[in-house]
Amino acid sequence: MSQSPIPPSPSAQDYAAQLAANADEAVFERADPIALFTDWLAEARKTEPNDSNAMALATVDADGLPDCRMVLLKGVDGRGFAFYSNRESAKGQELAGQPRAALLFHWKSLRRQVRIRGTVEPVSAEEADAYFASRARESRIGAWASDQSRPIDSRAALEAQVAAAEARFEGQEPPRPERWIGWRVVPDSIE
Predict the structure, then answer these.
(1) Average pLDDT rounded to a whole number, residues 105-131
(2) How is the chain classified by DSSP, letter by letter?
(3) Which of 101, 109, 103 is nearest to 17 (CA)?
């Protein structure tokens, strides 16, 4: 049985350079953690071009069991951290039953991570509509075609659902499905 190799750790020289880059003591003087987060996210966009806005979202199910998955941050401001998905999904049901969550951003290239814990509230319908309208048409069609977190019979069945949604909205812009909403994590703590 062969094991896949684990990538080597950075060299001592790389590690020292990273530590020096993160040695700015002014970070401890920043009074606004969301502003600092926004600055770090901008840095991550330069060094991590693939999904620098990816975050682990941890929730708890009805039995108290933790659940975690990756989602994409779609907005951050003084109110909190926003993301969007299907409210009928496992995450949607868990957030409805227990409106608290934890987020984790890991930017390996920057040797930084940010943990956020807080309460969760839905974004306004207007915010969800605006974000949904900004998505690629294929993504909007997919939101109509996919029953997220539910088993599908086959790829052909999913493709048939996509074709049906495409036919339904031929010549028009697909509106946001009622089940497709946004949530905002209002931080109690940011570390």
Answers:
(1) 96
(2) -PPPPPPPPPPHHHHHHHHHHT--GGGGG-S-HHHHHHHHHHHHHHH--S-TTEEEEEEE-TTS-EEEEEEE--EEETTEEEEEEETTSHHHHHHHHS-EEEEEEEEGGGTEEEEEEEEEEEPPHHHHHHHHHHS-HHHHHHHHH--TTS--S-HHHHHHHHHHHHHHTTTSPPPPPTTEEEEEEEEEEE-
(3) 109
One-letter amino acid of 68: C
Pairwise CA distance, residues 53 & 111, whole Å: 15
Chain centroid to Cα 73, Å, comes to: 4
Please give the pLDDT value at position 8: 65
**Which CATH architecture fits 13-129+178-190?**
Roll (2.30)
- How high is the pLDDT of residue 156? 87
Q: What pLDDT is stored for residue 19 in this prediction?
A: 62
Tens-digit pLDDT profile for residues 159-183? 888 898 889 899 999 999 999 999 9
The pLDDT of 73-94, averaged and rounded, is 96
CB 72 within 8 A of CB 83: yes
User: For the residues of 31-55, what is the DSSP string, one character each?
Assistant: S-HHHHHHHHHHHHHHH--S-TTEE
